[in-house]
Every structure is written in C-alpha cells, then in structure tokens.
Specification:
about 45% strand; mainly beta; about 120 residues; 4-stranded antiparallel β-sheet; globular
C-alpha cells in the first residue's frame, strides 16, 4: 500500500511563502501523475495543482492559485513539492498530495499538512 507523507505547512502572514513536500513510498512514483489537493473547513477537497508523470514537468493549476503556486517533483527522491507564494487567507486549508485527478487517487490519503494564512 502506497504511503503519502506531507510536510511543510505552518502559520504564515498574507503575502508570505511556504514550500510543501510529500514523500511517496514505493517504486512506481515516476509513473504517477501527482497532484496537490486542499480542503478548507466546511468545503470539499479540491485539486489545486497537478504534474505529469516522468520528467516533463508539465503542470496545471486551479485558477485560484495560478501564478502563485508551483508544483514540482523529484523522481529520484519520490517526492512532490508545492511552492506557494503570495499566500492569501483563502489559501488556508489542509493540503494533501495524491495521484491526480481524484478518480485516480489512492484510497489511503496521508495526514495532510495544515496551512494557515493569517495576520
């Protein structure tokens, strides 16, 4: 069973930056299309960024984060990253990584990492 371990969240002021990491177990990571999802209190989980498998680096973003967030991956380390800049209070949520899109996601999610944007 694949394990997903997210880290890097925290409390940051509006306009600040954070870099999230997600370590993925197993030997097939490079074949996975990966995504970062977030879930705010009282809201459904949403996919905010995805990156193609392999080394192309091709990525897509939700309109709400386009131009501020950057997803990347290190296939040698089985890790996917999310660089978040110009953070806004509405970015406050628990962030998770998993395969993308959500219909392809592993059944078992990680614990997520809390991101709180507040002054």
């Amino acid at each position: 069973q694949v394990q997903l371990v997210e880290s890097g969240g925290g409390l940051v002021q509006p306009g600040g930056s954070l870099r999230l990491s997600c370590a993925v177990s197993g030997s097939l990571f490079r074949f996975y299309v990966m995504g970062w999802y977030r879930q705010a209190p009282g809201k459904q989980r949403e996919l905010v960024a995805r990156i193609d498998s392999g080394s192309s680096g091709k990525s897509n973003y939700a309109d709400s984060v386009k131009g501020r967030f950057t997803i990347s991956r290190d296939n040698a380390k089985n890790t996917v990253f999310l660089q978040m800049n110009s953070l806004k209070p509405e970015d406050t949520a628990v962030y998770y990584c998993n395969r993308a899109p959500d219909v392809a996601a592993f059944d078992s999610w990680g614990q997520g990492t809390q991101v709180t944007v507040s002054s």
